[in-house]
Amino acid sequence: MKELVCIVCPNGCAMMIEEMGTSIKVSGNQCKRGEEFAVSEMIHPMRTICSTVKTNFPKVPVLPVRVSEEIPKDKISDVMREINKMVVTKPISIGDVIIENVLGLNVNIIATSNILKE
C-alpha cells in the first residue's frame, strides 16, 4: 500500500494505492483524473518542467522555457543539466525551440516568452 497526494487538480486528494497482482486499486480520490494519476504514478510517472536558460543579452540574462511534453520523472535531473548548459545567443519568440529532442526523449525545450524578440 502506498500513500500519494494527487497533483492533478486543486483538490489535492490523499489517495491510497494498492497493487493487487496486475491491477491497481485506488481509493481516496474525488475524481477520475486522480485515479488515472495514481495508476500513472505507479507504472510510469511523468512530469513537466518549467525553468530558465541563460542568454548573452545583458538586459535579459535569462529566458523562461518549458518542455513541450511531459517527460519521465526519473529524467528530470538529466534534462535540467541540458537546460543549464544552454545559452541563447539570438533573439527568439515564444514557442521557438531552444533544445530539439532533448536527450532523445522526443521532447523539445521551448521558449515561453517574447522578451528577446526585436
UniProtKB/TrEMBL annotation:
InterPro entries xrefs: CPE0013-like_sf, DUF1667
Gene3D superfamilies linked: CPE0013-like
Origin: domain of life: Bacteria
Pfam family, one: DUF1667
Entry protein name: Molybdopterin oxidoreductase
